Amino acid sequence: MTVTFPLTGEPLALDLLNTRTAAGDLVADPAGLEGWLAAQAGRLTPVGEVGAAEVAAVRAVREAARPALEAARCGERPPADALRALNEALSAAPAHRVLAWTEGAGLSAAAHRSAAPALRLAGELAEAVAELLTDPRVGEIRVCEAHDCVLLFLPAHPRRRWCVASVCGNRARVARYYARHKAESGE
Known about the structure:
Elements: H1 12-17, E1 20-21, E2 24-25, H2 30-39, H3 52-73, H4 80-92, E3 95-102, E4 106-113, H5 117-133, E5 142-143, E6 152-153, H6 165-185
Antiparallel strand pairs: 1-2, 3-4, 5-6
């Protein structure tokens, strides 16, 4: 079975949170996490083989990120245990810059984390969560308005109401259409 991710391309932390949908956990096993990592290609350091340790690390960061983000969206203090879990992920795989020379491109300073793959992945995701929590736009993050959707998004346009207009937006429009016509026909 191929897992499809309903919404990608948001800030990385939101893409992570959106792996828990109304239908369930999309990264509950190594195959699901591999699919999600493939959908995030170029945004994270390649992990190699994905196993139970990577799944557990990613899910731990996601579960700490959710209450922290809910609080930050409302301008409230995030729960101490959520911050502690995120800080532990960050400290388990600290980042440092590595200078490299590439002919034609020149000097670059890429972030590097020396840690086991699961810890490195958790550290990178915790870093993305920290960036989102401290972003001045954190209060603008919205939950999709579709009644059966729990996905989060950062709207580029203030009138955006759905995570994916062609999916949730269309379902909402079709439901309104049928409700309107049912009321007009007296059913």
